[in-house]
Specification:
The chain is mainly alpha-helical. The chain has two domains: 52 residues, no CATH class; 150 residues. Helix 5 packs antiparallel against helix 8 and helix 7 runs antiparallel to helix 8. It starts with 12 loop residues before the first helix and ends in a 5-residue tail after the last helix. Pfam families: Hemerythrin, ScdA_N.
Length: 225
C-alpha cells in the first residue's frame, strides 16, 4: 500500500476500510458501519456516535505508518524493530483477516468467486506463525542478543527452513484470494479482506527478508571458518 495519501475525515468509511488494512478492526471496535453504511464519511460517522474524529484518525493513520528498519543496525535495534513492526503486527492482522474471511465465505457462499477455504488457511498460517515467532522470541533472539555462540547456527537453520514453509503458505494464500483482487461489485468487507491479505503478504515477505538477509548472516559466518 502506498502511504502517499493519508487518511482524511472527508473520506467514506468504505474507502478507508478498503485502502487501509487494519482499519476494519478500528471501525468494528467503535461500532462504525463500514459495510452497509460505507458511504458515510468518517467525519459524519464519528459525529453520529459522538466520537472525536481526530482520535479515530490518529488510530487509522498509525496503520499507514511503515517504519523502515534502522540503517546499518546493531543486533539489538534490528531485533526490536522485527518484534514491533512484524511480530506484533502479525498477531493483530491474522485474527481480523480470519474473521473477515469467515464472514465473506458465509455471506457470499453462492458467489462463484467466493474464496472457499481461505479462513481455514489463514488459521493454519496463524498457528504456524505464532509457534515460529514464539521460538524466535524465547530461544533464538535471546541467544543472538547475548552475542551468539557456535550452536546458534542450528536454531537459525530451523528458522530458515520454516521460512521456506511460510513462502509456500503465501503462494497458497494468493491462489485462494485470487491474487488479492476482489471481483467486480464485491462488498467492502470482501475488498478489505483482500487488501489485508495483500498487506500480510508484503509484511511477511519483508519480515523474512530482514531475518534471512540482515539478521542471521552475521551469526552464521563464524561457523564457516
Amino acid at each position: 500500500m502506498s502511504n502517499s495519501s493519508i487518511a482524511q475525515p472527508e473520506q467514506s468509511l468504505g474507502s478507508l476500510a478498503v485502502q487501509i488494512p487494519g482499519a476494519t478492526a478500528v471501525f468494528r471496535k467503535l461500532k462504525l458501519d463500514f459495510c452497509c453504511g460505507g458511504q458515510q464519511s468518517l467525519n459524519d460517522a464519528c459525529a453520529s456516535k459522538q466520537l472525536d474524529v481526530n482520535t479515530v484518525l490518529d488510530e487509522i493513520r498509525a496503520l499507514q505508518e511503515q517504519s523502515p528498519p534502522p540503517d546499518a543496525p546493531d543486533t539489538t535495534s534490528l531485533i526490536a524493530h522485527i518484534l514491533q513492526r512484524f511480530h506484533e503486527v502479525h498477531r493483530q492482522q491474522l485474527p481480523e483477516l480470519i474473521r473477515m474471511a469467515r464472514r465473506v465465505e458465509a455471506v457470499h457462499r453462492e458467489h462463484p468467486d467466493v474464496p472457499r477455504g481461505l479462513a481455514d488457511h489463514l488459521e493454519d498460517m496463524e498457528e504456524e506463525l505464532l509457534e515460529h515467532m514464539a521460538k524466535e522470541e524465547q530461544i533464538l533472539f535471546p541467544m543472538l542478543l547475548a552475542g551468539g555462540n557456535p550452536m546458534v547456527v542450528h536454531p537459525i537453520g530451523m528458522m530458515r527452513h520454516e521460512h521456506l514453509g511460510h513462502g509456500a503458505q503465501l503462494e497458497k494464500l494468493a491462489a485462494l484470494a485470487r491474487q488479492h483482487k476482489a471481483p467486480a461489485g464485491a462488498c467492502n468487507t470482501w475488498r478489505a479482506l483482500y487488501a489485508g491479505t495483500a498487506r500480510l503478504t508484503d509484511d511477511l515477505i519483508e519480515h523474512i527478508h530482514l531475518e534471512n538477509n540482515r539478521l542471521f548472516p552475521a551469526f552464521e559466518r563464524p561457523a564457516q571458518h
